[in-house]
Amino acid sequence: MKPISPHSLALGLLLLATARLQAETTTNSAPALAGETNARPSLAMLRAEDAPVSSLPSETAAQRDARMAWWREAKFGLFIHWGVFSVPAGVYQGKQAPKGSIQFSEWLMWSCRIPVQAYRKFAPQFNPVKYNAEDWVKAASDAGMKYIVITTKHHDGFAMFDTKASDWNIVQATPYGKDPLKELAEACRNHGIKLGFYYSQAQDWVNGGAVGLGSMGTNAPPRWDAAMRTNMDEYIDKIAVPQVKEICSNYGEFPEIIWWDTPRDMNTNRAQKIYDVVHALRPNIIMNNRLGGGYRGDTETPEGFIPAQGYPGRDWETCMTMNESWGFKSTDNDWKSTQQLIRNLCDIASKGGNYLLNIGPTSEGLIPEPSLERLAEIGQWMKVNGEAINGTTATPFGEQHGAYSETEKDKKGKPKFIPTWDWRATTKPGKIYLEIFQWPANGKFLVPGLQSKVEKAYLLADHQQLQTKADATGVILSLPAAAPDKTASVVCLEIADRSAKVAANK
């Protein structure tokens, strides 16, 4: 018998502590690590709610804080959904996806049940000769974004990189014949932007992976084409694992993030194989919570919504589109206003989260003009007010987010959270930032319950000094008659305490 390493012993004790809950929730779990030497972390250890909230079970809180530091400070990133699905752009044989099916353009093959060979015919039409990574990264950087996550392979199995695991990729199957991630990595390097990769590890409708969302259970549609022969374990071994090795090896210091998705049919053993590859090649990488197999990852990923009170104790990131579809969809003109996007950013930062805002480039390699317009407008706001977002932590207050209704219930029968959109707050050591959406008509703004002494108060827009008065209710600010910014005007309070002292709500 091999001697037990301290690392294995610690993990073994954690397994024993969580064994009962694992027995209720786990199937095909990885073997326990007791008795192994220099054992790698096991996903089985991460199943219980009281397991370490990290992709590295053995790291200390200080080590985790150091690994996550850049991501926590960034607050704002760009999501890019790009692939061969940009060719049909949400329309197949003159029709959009049927009502009741998933309407996103990147799901068109699934929604319209397009046969594999018919879908493959889109690849010769995919020739993004107008793609300029420098322009893309500059647009993100000018918007105040600090990182980019791009789809390297979505559920249609099409790899947006040079891969030896399958010929269904942009280098071999298209006239473009180049790896666009190489250019993107170089542009990110030049602009000081972190680069992460989205990879669909489970669903792959062409290469033999899973089909459908895990939440569909037995209601997932049957494979609509005989060419979609599936052996999940063979797919993991011959496609997913080799491709994950490639994307973790071929782009210098990148990726800094791996963004998994839709973990259909991902048991612990399958997830462990992928995890082991990433852990060996990128031990300090940040991974989200969608690998599957019970793996919790580093970040929660609310999609298309902002949680009422964030995820206390967890790092989290809301991903959201500017219109409706993630990938480019020619008929989708339902754009969110710049005001809404900026206020979303303030709301998310005030709750301690990150905002991953999506664009869907065209098959020519262009970012749609409405997306560029919104990025530029966000950038104008961030140039003035970015210090209230980047590098901040969550609000010391709370009631500015809204309250739970005493009468209304949500879909689960719990009290419904009713948000208010008057103001938000973020913090840095010795500072509080107030992002004010509704400018008070009487020129008075109450900072509720603030007990810290305010040494200086001013607008970020012009650094105009503001008068303050402390009383039993908090601190009252005297504001100018007109708001500097109709979307969100930011007041900075420099306080005597490193962390704000706020009276508890009664």
Structure description:
This protein has 506 residues and is of the alpha/beta class. It is built from eleven helices and 17 strands. Strands 5-4-3-2-1-8-7-6 form an eight-stranded parallel beta sheet, sandwiched between helices. It has a four-stranded antiparallel beta sheet with strand order 11-12-17-14. Strand 11 and strand 12 (431-436) form a beta hairpin. The N and C termini lie far apart (60 Å).
- Number of strand elements: 17
Give average pLDDT, whole number.
Answer: 89
Structural class: alpha/beta
Reading the helices and strands in chain order gives HHEHHHEHHEHEHEEEHEHEEEEEEEEE
Strand residue percentage: 15-25%
| Main β sheet profile | 8 strands, parallel
Q: In percent, how helical is the residue content?
A: 25-40%
- List the strand order in the largest sheet: 5-4-3-2-1-8-7-6
Low-confidence stretches: 1-52
| Helix count, DSSP H or I runs of 4 or more residues | 11
Radius of gyration: 24 Å
**First-last Cα distance:** 60 Å
Q: Which outline best applies? A: elongated
Identify the notable features of this structure and list them briefly.
single chain, 506 residues, alpha/beta, eight-stranded parallel sheet, four-stranded antiparallel sheet, 11 helices, 17 strands, elongated, disordered N terminus
Annotate the secondary structure layout.
Elements: H1 6-25, H2 61-74, E1 76-80, H3 108-111, H4 116-120, H5 133-142, E2 147-153, H6 170-173, H7 180-191, E3 194-199, H8 232-247, E4 257-259, H9 268-281, E5 286-287, E6 299-300, E7 315-321, H10 338-350, E8 354-359, H11 369-385, E9 402-409, E10 415-419, E11 423-428, E12 431-436, E13 444-448, E14 454-459, E15 467-471, E16 474-478, E17 489-495
Parallel strand pairs: 1-2, 1-8, 2-3, 3-4, 4-5, 6-7, 7-8
Antiparallel strand pairs: 9-10, 11-12, 12-17, 13-16, 14-17, 15-16
Helix pairs in contact: 5-7, 5-11, 8-9
